[in-house]
Amino acid sequence: MAETGLPNGWEVRHSNSKNLPYYFNEALKQSRWEPPAGTDTEKLKKYMAEHHSAGEIAQMAAGANGNPVQGKIRASHLLVKHKDSRRPSSWRENNITRTKEDAMGIILGHEQRIRAGQTSLGDLATSESDCSSARKMGDLGFFGKGDMQKEFEEAAFRLKPGDVSGVVETASGLHLIERLE
C-alpha cells in the first residue's frame, strides 16, 4: 500500500473536467470517485489533506465560481455520518458504525475548533467530512429552495454569507453549514 493508502494498482488522479481528484487503476482500466475496497482510510485522509488541500481546492472552487443565480445561494458543509444515516458509508470509511451520539461529539469538536478560529470549515471538510464534497472544501455550489433536504435548506437559507450554522441534523447525518454567497 502506497502513501495514499489505496490498494496496489490504484492511484489518485485529477479530473480536468470536474476539477476534482478521483481514483484510477491502470491494470483494470477502472476509475471511480469513491475509494476502492481495501483502502486504508486513515492514510488516504492524510494524503488528501497534504496533496489536495485547502489552497489548491480554494483556487479550483474560485475558478469554477460563476455568477450567482437568482434565488440561489452557495454553501459548503462538513458532514459527520453515523450508523443510522441514510447511507452509512463514505470516502473516509466503507462502513460507518459510530453511534449518533459519537457523531455528535465529533461534530461539536469540529464546531468548537472553527468558532475558536483554529481552522476553517473548508479546511476541516477536506479531511473530516463524510461527503464527497470534501474534495472541494465542502463546497456544494449554488442551490435553490427544494434542492436540498428540508432541514439543511432551512438552516442554509437563514445564514448570511460568511456565517456558520450550529449542528444541523438530516437523514444524511450531522452537518455544519457555511454560507458562501
Summarize the structure in words.
30% of the residues lie in helices and 21% in strands. The chain is of the alpha+beta class and 181 residues long. It starts with 9 loop residues before the first strand and ends with a strand. The protein folds into 2 domains: 10-52, Ubiquitin Ligase Nedd4, Chain: W, CATH 2.20.70.10; 68-179, Chitinase A, domain 3 (Roll), CATH 3.10.50.40. Strand 6 (168-170) and strand 7 (173-179) form a beta hairpin. It is globular and about 50 Å long. The strands form 2 sheets. The protein has a 4-stranded antiparallel beta sheet, sandwiched between helices. The chain has a 3-stranded antiparallel beta sheet with strand order 1-2-3, with no helix packed on it. It has helices at 41-51, 54-64, 100-115, 121-128, 150-158, and strands at 10-15, 20-25, 30-32, 73-80, 139-143, 168-170, 173-179.
Number of domains: 2
**Proportion of helical residues:** 25-40%
E-strand count: 7
The largest sheet is:
4 strands, antiparallel
- Provide the CATH architecture of the largest domain: Roll
Number of helices: 5
Strand content: 15-25%
Compressed to H and E, one letter per element, the order equals EEEHHEHHEHEE
For the terminal residues, how far apart are their CA atoms?
41 Å
Strand adjacency order, main sheet: 5-4-7-6
Which structural class best describes the helix and strand composition? alpha+beta
